[in-house]
Design goal:
Chains: A mainly alpha, B mainly alpha, C alpha+beta
Number of domains of chain B: 1
Oligomer: heterotrimer
Helix content of chain A: 55-70%
Shape of chain B: globular
Strand content of chain B: under 5%
Number of strands of chain B: 2
Order of helices and strands of chain A: HHHHHHHHHH
CATH architecture of chain A: Up-down Bundle
Shape of chain A: globular
CATH architecture of chain B: Up-down Bundle
CATH class of chain A: Mainly Alpha
CATH superfamily of chain A: Ferritin, core subunit, four-helix bundle
Radius of gyration of chain A: 18 Å
Distance between the termini of chain A: 29 Å
CATH topology of chain A: Ferritin
Largest sheet of chain A: none
Distance between the termini of chain B: 46 Å
Largest sheet of chain B: 2 strands, antiparallel
Radius of gyration of chain B: 21 Å
Strand content of chain A: under 5%
CATH topology of chain B: Ferritin
Number of helices of chain A: 10
Strand order of the largest sheet of chain B: 1-2
Structural class of chain A: mainly alpha
Helix content of chain B: 55-70%
Number of strands of chain A: 0
CATH class of chain B: Mainly Alpha
Largest interface: A-B, 48 and 46 residues
Chain lengths: 261, 309, 102
């Protein structure tokens, strides 16, 4: 039976939105991560980071697969066939990679958010959600260790590295609130018993964990409270960076969406 | 270096014994091995460049993952091979940093085949199937090299190349069975890669310097032509079975020996590219130079001792 | 080697019950980084269930033998080779009645 068959029409629509949101986050970040391949600062790190990129893309595939039966679209159609305004990833994740400090900080902060999200999903009432969350969490444990290691290394790596890390923290946290933007359909998921609570309410735990993770390295942590993003990816408002990303990503696939590649 | 030591060394080689990193070896043996091994490592690193351009553009989640995995493996090969080279080069004070600096300064060799452009998705398939297929021929032969540390890592390199071959084959077979546009894309890629593939195995033996000692000391065991023939015997029938045209009107099999006779593949072009004149050589080296400069601050951060570590 | 990096050797256990065997080496700036990187360098295809990562400087070497010389005759008591004649000594007692000869 396809996932969500026991929910109301509204419930199924809400679940579809949430799955797309998670899938798009993972796909866009995984794509950005993969852009480092062959150019990471150390050959050994290049190899490790390529695994992280593969993990994110394959996590996206897991979420898209759940949506396939709900929407009657293949996972490739979902990943490659949607327009910019239909994408639900957070704006933070579509930003270009910048320097290694931005990449490390963004990925680490996102991994904390994803950890909270998947932890909540371990308590979802739908077994498919729980099992995908479990699979993802097994791989994410490494990501968190890897991120913590690099954050420490860069924050304590001398004046320039510290400066760049601080700058990265400022930029990343200015947009991190968008990861937990409250959305209208969240309440439906709670009402129909899919999730124990609205995912956007994880923001508070997220702020605490980010403070703990970054604070131990002598980094100043800008407040997330007052920031307002100019664009909110969660409701399909994206910038030219996503447009360019989608164009590159879809270049071959869209040349013939009906073909087998 | 005494005559007796050299004679004992050569007797050891002739008995089929292997040389480890800490064993005594003639300086020239070390240098010949280094040349071969560093060129290989450089080639894996440079080979990643045309292919990585296609990771962001791979058509489909599965292809995206498998191209990324393949490029990751190539960089993994570079890592393993540079380690072997660095250990071998230690008595000469040669480190991986020196090797990388020489590479991006245009002073070091890497295989010509990685200086060519990869303009279409079909190139990704052709490279993974046929270029990796060619690499597997040479690397497979080197599994029996006398220098043991190299032979050991080559086992893993070859095992991974065999997977890349399947990945490339899968892309090629999909395109060959696809739309008219896909089949035309595939034919175009094959037409452009055929000559670089023949060049991959190196010039005819008469034109190759440096070879006598590499064979006497069993650093290499098969000649350029033997390897080229091994490749042609395996792959010409398969390419033809796909209905693809090989751009060599003179290509035919000698019924007596089974060897493939082929038209002259323009060895002048080969030498021109070896000397740094490849279509993408300068671009790719410049790109590597630039990214390396941009990363200098990270290397400094890694050199800073941290109490947090 | 590069001034900021050291070589770390990696040993992996393929399956429970197996001893660790040498998997390869890598450059890293400290042991924490080495352990994390080693996981993706050598274990991304799940080749091992567990790895040890050791700075090469901690590894001591010693040349211990030359296979070309053959076994040392004065030390045959350390292997089955030294007890070939035991079979003959059983003859006094009617031969070596082993269960598998019944």
């Amino acid at each position: 039976m396809p996932i969500g068959h026991e929910l109301s029409g509204e419930g199924r629509a809400a679940l579809g939105e949430y799955l797309l949101l998670m899938a798009d986050d993972e796909l866009v970040l995984g794509h950005r991560d993969s852009e480092w391949c062959a150019f990471a600062p150390l050959i050994e790190e290049d190899i490790a980071f390529a695994s992280i990129a593969q993990d994110e893309i394959s996590h996206a595939a897991l979420w898209y697969e759940l949506i396939e039966s709900m929407r009657g679209l293949s996972r490739d159609q979902l990943a490659f066939g949607r327009r910019e305004s239909e994408m639900r990833n957070a704006t933070l994740l579509e930003r270009e990679n910048g320097d290694w400090a931005f990449t490390v900080v963004r990925h680490y902060v996102y991994d904390i958010a994803d950890d909270l999200r998947t932890e909540q999903l371990l308590h979802a009432n739908e077994p498919l959600l729980r099992s995908v969350a479990q699979r993802i969490r097994r791989e994410e444990r490494y990501h968190l260790e890897h991120g913590a290691m690099w954050l420490g290394r860069l924050a304590h790596g001398g004046a320039e590295a510290h400066r760049r890390t601080q700058h990265a923290v400022d930029r990343v946290l200015a947009e991190s609130r968008g990861l937990f933007h409250p959305l209208a359909w969240e309440q439906v998921l709670v009402k129909e018993g899919v999730l124990p609570d609205r995912p956007s309410r994880l923001l508070r735990a997220f702020v605490e964990r980010v403070h703990a993770a970054l604070g131990e390295h002598g980094l100043q942590i800008p407040s997330l409270a007052e920031k307002r993003e100019s664009r909110c990816g969660r409701i399909g408002h994206h910038g030219p960076e996503l447009a360019s990303l989608l164009q590159t990503m879809g270049e071959v696939w869209r040349s013939d969406p009906a073909a087998t590649w | 270096m005494s005559e007796e030591r050299l004679a004992a060394f050569e007797a050891k080689i002739a008995r089929g014994e292997l040389i480890e990193a800490g064993d005594w070896m003639p300086d020239e043996y070390r240098r010949q091995c280094l040349r071969l091994i560093v060129t290989h490592a450089n080639s894996e690193l440079m080979g990643a460049l045309p292919e990585r351009e296609w990771i962001p553009r791979a058509p489909g989640l599965q292809r995206k993952l498998s191209v990324l995995s393949k490029v990751q493996d190539e960089i993994g090969h570079a890592q393993m091979i540079y380690r072997v080279a660095e250990d071998l080069g230690r008595p000469l004070g040669i480190t991986r940093e020196h090797m990388l600096e020489d590479l991006i300064a245009g002073k070091a060799k890497f295989h010509n085949v990685f200086t060519y452009p990869a303009p279409t998705w079909a190139d990704v398939g052709v490279i993974a199937w046929l270029v990796d297929g060619a690499a597997l021929e040479t690397q497979g032969a080197l599994l029996r090299t006398s220098y043991a540390p190299y032979a050991r890592i080559l086992r893993r390199v070859c095992a991974e190349e065999a997977i890349h071959l399947k990945h490339g084959e899968d892309i090629v077979l999909t395109l060959a069975a696809g739309t008219r546009v896909q089949r035309a894309m595939l034919q175009d890629a094959l037409t452009r890669w055929w000559q670089p593939l023949l060049h991959f195995f190196g010039p005819p033996d008469e034109q190759s310097p440096n070879t006598e000692l590499t064979f006497r000391w069993r650093i290499r065991l098969m000649t350029n032509e033997q390897l080229r023939q091994s490749f042609l015997r395996k792959y010409v029938p398969k390419v033809q079975a796909l209905g693809l045209a090989i751009p060599d009107a003179e290509l035919r099999q000698d019924p007596a020996t089974g060897d493939w006779l082929y038209g002259d593949p323009d060895w002048n072009e080969f030498w021109r590219v070896v000397k740094g004149g490849g279509a993408r050589t300068e671009d790719r080296l410049r790109l590597r130079r630039m990214t390396r400069e941009q990363q200098l601050w990270v290397r400094d951060a890694m050199a800073t001792p941290t109490s947090a570590a | 080697m590069s001034q900021e990096m050291a070589v770390y050797e990696v040993f992996g256990r393929e399956r429970k019950g197996e001893p660790h065997k040498h998997a390869g080496s890598l450059l890293a700036c400290d042991a924490d980084m080495a352990v994390l990187l080693a996981q993706e360098l050598f274990c991304r295809r799940k080749e091992y269930v567990q790895i040890w990562v050791v700075p090469r400087d901690a590894v001591r070497q010693a040349p211990v033998g030359d296979a070309a010389l053959g076994p040392e005759p004065r030390r045959l008591y350390r292997s089955g080779e030294g007890y070939r004649e035991t079979v003959d000594k059983w003859k006094r007692f009617g031969g070596d009645r082993r269960a598998d000869r019944a």
